[in-house]
Amino acid sequence: MIDFHCHLDLYENPQEVATQCRERGLYVLSVTTTPSAWVGTKRLSEGAKHIRTAIGLHPELAQTRSQELDLFDEILPKTRYVGEIGLDGSNDLRPHWRSQVEVLKHILKACAKAGGRIMSIHSRGATTPVLDILEKHKEAGVPVLHWFSGTAQELRRAVELGCWFSVGPAMLHGRKGQDLVAKMPQERVLTETDGPLVMVEKRPVLPWEITIVEPGLQRIWGVSHGNLRETLRENLRRLVTIS
Ligand code: MN
To answer: What would the pLDDT profile of 137-182 be if each residue is shown by its tens digit?
Structure first.
């Protein structure tokens, strides 16, 4: 099982959640929202073969944490994974749009200079601007669009640009999300919870509860449970090899 976008450090009991991920052999991309959170979050993965810690600077924090870009650059050589990064076009974040763009450009340039990274990317309300920027920074690595919520046309463009997708519970709930997932190339899809920021049964979703997305994906792809798991595992293997 794979949770390719969750925030281990944001759980109430991060060590306990990390330990359970390790014991269950779960593949986890543990993303951070600030560079300064990376060292402590990385520590949670000690002894866990399948947990990777990505260094990020969330667009919601671009304005207040842009001074951490130096720290970002310093840590970047230590990891192949970057995230959560991106842009957010929500109304309350509009005043910070310019800082968001500056931060994202800085990060993509740094990734390119470092030889490319696997990047977990946020694009809420900003799909086209994110794709515009990714198009200009192709050397930055492989973008994995987390929780894609754009249009079918934007999805086609993202596919053409070489983007991958991590699909979570919320996307599989509604018709719009399901239609988008159906249009994603199967060989570029991974699963994610975005826990603990996503809730199930009024509590934060746990990484190993990634199983809740399996029935939805099986229905869309028309595959057995075994085939689904095999496809996802193979996708992860290929992503790590191509990048
Ligand atoms: Mn997230």
So the answer is: 999 999 999 999 999 999 999 999 999 999 999 999 999 999 999 9
What's the gap in Å between 87 CA and the centre of ligand 1?
A: 12
Ligand 1 centroid distance, CA of 194 (Å)? 5
Structure token digits, residue 196: 């603990």
Q: What is d(CA 82, CA 61) in angstroms, rounded to the nearest whole number? A: 15
Q: Determine the distance separating the centroid of ligand 1 and the alpha carbon of 179, expressed in angstroms.
A: 22
- Whole-angstrom CA distances from 93 to 55, 61, 103, 138, 216 are 22, 10, 14, 26, 32
pTM: 0.97
Distances in Å between the Cα of 36 and the Cα atoms of 39, 42, 65, 72, 173 are 7, 11, 9, 8, 34
Q: Token pair of 39, please?
A: 């060292």
* All domains in the chain, ordered by first residue: 2-242 (3.20.20.140)
pLDDT tens-digit profile of 64-117?
999 999 999 999 999 999 999 999 999 999 999 999 999 999 999 999 999 999
Compute the distance between CA of residue 208 and CA of residue 6 in angstroms, rounded to an integer. 11
